[in-house]
Amino acid sequence: MNLPLLLAQRFRRSREKTRYLSFISASSTIGIGLGCAILIVLLSVMNGFQKALENDFLSLVPHVEYQAVRGSLQDWQEVVRVAESHPGVRAAAPVIVLSAMIQQPGRFRGLQLRAIEPEYEARVSGLRRYVSDADWLQFQNTPNGILLGRGMADLLNVQVGDDLVVMIPQLQSSGGLRAPRRLSTQVAGIFAMGGELDFQQGYIHLATGREAARLEGDASAVRLALHNVYDAPHIAHEIARQLNEFAYIHDWTRTEGHLYRDIQLVRTIMYLVLVLVLAVASFNIVSTLVMVVQEKKSSIAILKTMGADHRLILQTFVWQGSLNGVVGALLGGVFGSLVAVYLPAMLAFLETQFAFSLLPNELYFVSQIPSQLLIRDVLVVIGVAMLTSVLATLYPAWRAANLAPVDGLRGR
């Protein structure tokens, strides 16, 4: 064992006899440990929300969509072929996007209708995950069927099998509006994704949508599903340059990108808080080490009289102060990692026991606090904690190293 570390451990053990110094030292270790644990948990929650955004919310929102400027696409099959030839595209499918109103006695409800081909939709959307097998089968076998979100179905007080009248706006060739087209549909199924989409979106068959919109072609848009959702903006423009269609280019970052930006903003703030919290906790290390240096003046003087050089004394007190940060960071890292892994289960248990909900289904696209622990975050938090601990020791250690032996022996 090297001599500076051995001396630091000896000083540390002798300091335990002094209750006040021992308390200050323990508080600095606990502060650093709690700071590391809390930040690991918060970063894991942010990772969980980002993963939920990718896998859940964006499974129903088009990653990229090409929508005809007017009417229908001339050849949507060619758009699908070109899109699927791109290595970043997982699949493509035709769709017709319609604004609609659901009519009931005395009231109307606005809705975005997406006319889909069920066999294609399963390739580009996670809709199938939020619909029961029976409802999905009935939707496939009901040409005039409609899939409604749970929120909209509850507002309308309808169930599977009920009839609905949907009104589709109609545009004149001059650009004005004419009498809307009334479409009689039957509720063939209900999907329950959670959040705003349950109140805003519905699905009908592609043929029904084409008839309701009176399109000359088979589809007004093509939807793409990507392997990496964050590549959407540049993939959308790369494919668009190969198309012979006049189409609007949409990607999820333009419509739903605020959710991702909010998550990244909170993550950035967490990293800033990490540095500030650990810096404050490290001040205890400074105060502890200053008092230790004051207490060990005679020991420092004796070591220097016996031949200890400036570097040995400096390293000794750097080691002594850093041990608090190292122990705190490691304990905080382990504790924070365990809490991050079991956080969803713990919060679910508390919600069950006390009958409350942190994330109501009607407001959020996730029903419980998600958490995803990344080793990278753990290493960053522990590394920053150790670094700030070492930096906090430099000034007291420098003071100890520059202490003159005669001053130490005199007790000055």
Automatic annotation (TrEMBL):
GO BP: any one term: lipoprotein transport
Main location: membrane
InterPro entries: ABC3_permease_C, Lipoprotein-release_system, LolCE_TM, MacB_PCD
Start and end residues of each MacB-like periplasmic core domain: 27-213
Transmembrane segments: 20-46, 269-292, 378-398
Pfam families reported for this sequence: FtsX, MacB_PCD
Domain ABC3 transporter permease C-terminal per the UniProt entry, residue ranges: 272-404
NCBIfam families: lolCE (TIGR02212)
Family, as annotated: Belongs to the ABC-4 integral membrane protein family. LolC/E subfamily.
Name the record gives this protein: Lipoprotein-releasing ABC transporter permease subunit
Species classification: Bacteria, Pseudomonadati, Pseudomonadota, Gammaproteobacteria, Alteromonadales
